[in-house]
Amino acid sequence: MKIAVLEPLGIPYETLDEKVKTAVGDMAEVICYKDRKEDVETLIERSKDADIVVLSNFKYPKAVMENCPKLKYICVAFTGYDHVDMDYCRERGIQVSNCAGYSTSAVADLVFGFVIDLYRNIIACNDVVRKGGTKDGLVGPELEGKKFGIIGAGAIGLRVAGIAKAFGCEVYAYSRTKKDIEGVTFTDLDTLMSSCDIISLHVPQNKETIGMINAEKIALMKKTAVFINTARGPIVDSKALADALNEGRIAGAAVDVFETEPPIDPNHPLLTAKNCIATPHVAFASVQAMYKRADIVCENLSAYLKGTPINLV
Predict the structure, then answer these.
(1) Has 90 been annotated as catalytic?
(2) What is the pTM of this model?
(3) Catalytic site residue 281?
(4) Is 232 a catalytic residue?
(5) Quick check: 23 and 298 in contact, CB under 8 A?
């Protein structure tokens, strides 16, 4: 068996190489690549002789896999796996695992970085103090007592809920499946959108969720509300969100994800929208999360090679 780790996965190459080789022992030959290449030709070259490939969040299409006759298993070093052609994997019988859980704390941390920045005008305060200004016009609200709405009650959503409760927020959630979580009130999506002061998105991207937060849903939001997206860009109508910001129909937004991976077109509507903080898909990428992810990759590989695959999607 041959394993091709197609990129360094955010940790030093030597560390990843040692981790993977230790995890699989003599069960497989391992080659770890020192850089990340996303073009089809390079991916084919790196994958064509592999039984197993490891990759994070770049597109891995049929055009690559149909040139990889030995491919039996893909370990996606990421929570989402919509960038892998799953239909082709099912057709070919290629098994796929993900690495859910490694970034739960990291994503939740950034959500509250966003919320506090939006509420307390930290970026604007930083600018004004350097220009000899004061807090005038920059005094914002507290989180305590605010209605915090969470769309998607998976691991990350529930981590966000726990932190929101610690800040003294009233926590509401919308999920396909209602759960019994102390201190969290489950409600329908329209009620959450219309009643909450802070709305944070945490659903996976799939056929059902693409376009889920559209102009109609955004129009339900309060004028004082803020919207946070650390999930996936296509779940939200970016133009509708930008229009709501520019027209003052909502108070602010923060987005870490777009329709494509960075670099983002400078003309993207959210990059010029009022009161919008944007980051380049960094929520998942804390130092600790990258090492947690490498450990889960190693667990996935070892389990698959032993005939007991885990984290299958």
Answers:
(1) no
(2) 0.90
(3) yes
(4) yes
(5) yes
